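pasting for ref. prot 1 ->
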Amino acid sequence: MSVRITIAWLSQLWLLGTRVRLMTVCALILMCPIGVQDVVAQTADVQADSNQLAENIQANPGTESVEMSAHCVMANSAESDFPNSLVVHLVDENDGLVAAWYDGATTRYPHGVLGDDIEASELFVIANEAGTQCSQQVVLDDNEVFEDLAPRLVDMDGDGEMDVVTIISHAEKGARIAVFGYAAGDRSQLKLKASTRAIGTPFRWLAPIGMGDFNNDGRMDIAYVDRPHLARILRVVSYTESNELEEIASAPGFTNHRIGEDFISSGVRSCQGRLQLVTADSRWERILLTSVKETTLVTDDAGPFTGVDSIRAALECTD
């Protein structure tokens, strides 16, 4: 994980009807943590704001907030073991999560699916509280790691606060998706709000595709490929009112990652108001566009897979 290359760009998304401005650090070439890559903002003032925020966070985050609240910690993403995992979120309101990144390099889970045996054991976030930045930390147990490229910031439960979507792998149970966030009205501690079941076997991984309301039922969903090197099952889980991730659809025959690659070859495109999951087929021969209709996956063939550039082209709306 230590050498995974990342790039950044500014996107504008519409999540549950709310326009959200955000800058994300996205894994080369395709895996933007938020998942949707349909609109690139061109306004220089917004770009300048996002750049300044990222520079401020890396330069001196959390120092003023230590005196304000005992639940804040000292943190500096520039000194992180994984500085390229930094994700920055810009919102019009003053309060809420504005950044997240991984730290705490460890080799205690020697899977190497993302290119090396170095994984993260800590998650840091920065939240604005009454105009003051507060850094908080999640430290995993000794039998777990964040087997991931970068955290993803998205409001999963519709409460107006950003949540953090991560991948946690367990020494005996393998990978699961884990969503961290604040309880309503309480920013004193970042909590585990929801997670999928672990795969059940060590050294078994999953590769996220993206997040969105894929079946238009008003609830946010997470799409991922379960064991992209073995089972190759596309799964879609929905965030419920009881803070659970409930599977609503699944089908075999999909993949988005090869062992050793430090990027994920998939994404979500929004074309003519419709969200589609962009992946490869299980043989890496065809590009597949998949939409969710209620609890059914509907897949169209988008042409031959000829490398990551063909996935990138499929993410563009040309029809």
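and prot 2 ->
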Amino acid sequence: MHALIVSVLFINTNNTIRKYLVLFLLYNYNEINLSSTFLNKRWIEAQLSTYKHTRNFNLPLHRKQHKRMKTLKQTVTATKILSVDIGGSNIKGTLLNEEGQMIADYKKLPTPSPATPDKVMATIEQLSKNFPGFEKASVGFPGYVKNGVIVTAPNLGSELWHQIPLAERLSALLQKPVRVVNDADMQGLGVVSGKGLEIMVTLGTGFGTAVLYNGLLLPHLELAHHPVTKTKDYDTYIGDKEMERIGKQRWNKRMMRVIDILKTVFNYDHLYIGGGNSDELTFKLDNNITIVNNKDGIRGGARLWNQPEAK
């Protein structure tokens, strides 16, 4: 239907008919499947610029239509950000606007095994095809990332990923600007208030952490691998496998100890706890501790682009 209208628009010279057709296309922009027409964003913007005032149409418009025309330019020109989370089981993605609001449903594909850089990047490229029109991409990676370069990847294979310039290679593959950070860092960006010293921890396969001050992401610390006992680091002390081994009651006692350590070390203003095992916490939390879910943190993919670019 839209393809037919666009075709008639290009061959028709009657100005009144053209105005009606442009108006229809503008009102229905969000419903148009751009991949099925040769209509494109720049062309729509040009028409909007030409016909943005109601008097140019000389048509009786309802109040709701006036409001839609007023906000249409924002809808058409809004930046779209592909936000990707690389997990041990799945690689998930969605589309965000600049405010971090989801404007497309989540899609996911299985994480390849073995999770080599080439296979993971190919999966991200395949996933990105579900989100046409994105202008840049944010990627959360399960490991230590420095300036877009992978240093460690415990759950994917550090020997495969060491010193892989993932941001640079994905940018070349997708032909878009790309930023890559630790997955907990990206989630932390999405949930913090931007006031004071705030910490994000994720409880899942391991123990992910992010530290932010007044909304600014501080250099990533792999606290997961810091010793918490003589024989265990945080990953092996409260990770998924350990919870299954010792049971949820003992695991909760350990989590109480971990939170006490974080209080003492950081004296944080607010602590956010996410990850699949955050639902297993059974003790009363302080008023400055909040449980968040993965979707709460998805807006971090947008906020990442407000962070200073690493030099």
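DSSP finds twelve helices and twelve strands in the chain.
The radius of gyration is 24 Å.
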